[in-house]
Structures are given as C-alpha cells and as structure tokens.
Amino acid sequence: MNQRAGVGSSVVIKGELSAQEDVVIAGRVEGSINVNGHLVLVEAGAHVVGDITATGIVVAGAVHGSLLAEERIQAQPGADLQGDISAPRIAIADGAIVNGRIETVAASSPRKLKAAS
Known about the structure:
- The protein is mostly beta strands.
- It is built from no helices and 15 strands.
- It has one domain.
- Helix content is 0%, strand content 56%.
- It is globular and about 35 Å long.
C-alpha cells in the first residue's frame, strides 16, 4: 500500500518539509522539501519557494528553487520552474516554463546543486 502525505490547497507551510512517503502539494510551501525514496508532486496552482530533493519530482505548478531527483524530474504543461534541475532523466512538456540550468547526471551519483538564493 502506497502512503501519501498531502498539503491541501489552503495550507501554507513555512520551514523544512521532510517525509518518508510520497508528498502531494496543492498549497504553498516556503522552505526546502526532502523526500528520500519517494515522489514529490506539485499540483497545478501549488507554489513552492525552496529546493526539492526526492527520488522523483513531478511539477504542474510553480517552483522557485533547485530540483534534485535520484530518478526523474517531469515538468508538465503549465509548470513554472525557476531554478536549476538535476536528474538522470528529465522530461519537459510543451507549455512548461523552465528558467535555470538543466543537468542530466548518472543514476548512481546525482550532484548536490547550489541552493536557490
């Protein structure tokens, strides 16, 4: 059974968010997100100001910070990414905005990116 933690559309979190399960963000997070071994999903209309580190990251909303994934980063149509992204596999759909450095790395050794300022 897959567990998922959620940040609802009316929720605002200020500070670090860490989890040991998939995280779905529909609201606003101001701070870093660390989800080891799991997925982070930033839904359309959601806003993250901070860095995200996870096994997989899917963005349909806005993220202003660096993204670092062990496996894959996916920017869906309407996504707004402002920051560097690094993963072994990166998919950017038509209609997504990415403003930053894009780096594909070997699956065994993703690099730590410089924090967004």
